[in-house]
Specification:
The radius of gyration is 22 Å and the shape is globular. It has about 170 residues and is an alpha+beta fold. It has helices spanning about 30-45, 135-145, 150-160, and strands at about 25-30, 50-55, 60-65, 90-100, 105. The protein folds into two domains: about 20-75 and about 85-120; about 130-168. Helices cover about 25% and strands about 15% of the residues. A hairpin with a 4-residue loop joins β2 (about 50-55) and β3. The chain has three helices and five strands; from the N terminus they run βαββββαα. The termini are far apart.
């Protein structure tokens, strides 16, 4: 005799990672304030972003998760294994100037408000966060022009940032 199937319907499968929240819709006086807010938000929540497209004449800039876009396939003859953090992540947001409010706004639509990966271990895991600031680049250029060695330049930057080269 067969017994009736009494098992409860299965719930949606659990994601193997903690979901990254969408940023809050905020208003800012300047584009720099908006980017600083988003940089801090992304560091706190384990992701990084890069500029996707820009329309300076419209004061509108689109940013995407740095894990967005597809992985480029290497040629079949290549012996090198290709490593990439790209996962075709759909997350995008825009920073645009609203004329009537005279403010910069963070905007995104529901379709592009989620990541398809979990948070990273920290800001240092994203190459985009390991770039020198404009101020640091000026220091590097000045020291290089003065004949400083790379080791001295690195030491100077580390002293300025409390033992680290990059600021997170």
């Amino acid at each position: 005799m067969s017994s009736p199937n009494t098992s409860a319907p299965s719930a949606a499968p659990e994601k193997p990672y903690t979901e990254i929240p969408a940023p809050p819709h905020e208003q800012f006086e300047t584009q720099e304030e908006l980017l600083l807010f988003m940089r801090n938000f992304s560091h706190q929540h384990g992701f990084a972003f890069v500029k996707d497209s820009s329309h300076p004449e419209k004061k509108s800039y689109v940013y995407r998760c740095n894990q967005g876009r597809k992985i480029r396939q290497s040629s079949e003859n290549s012996d090198k294994a290709q490593r990439s953090i790209k996962s075709n992540c759909p997350f995008k947001f825009s920073g645009s100037y609203h004329q009537k409010l005279e403010k910069w706004l963070i905007n995104y639509n529901t379709k592009n408000s989620r990541h398809n990966h979990g948070p990273s271990e920290g800001p240092h895991t994203h190459p985009v966060n390991r770039r020198l600031s404009k101020e640091d680049l000026v220091v590097v250029e000045q020291m290089f022009d003065a004949g400083a060695t790379p080791a001295n330049i690195k030491q100077t930057l580390m002293k300025q940032h409390g033992g680290k080269i990059y600021q997170f």
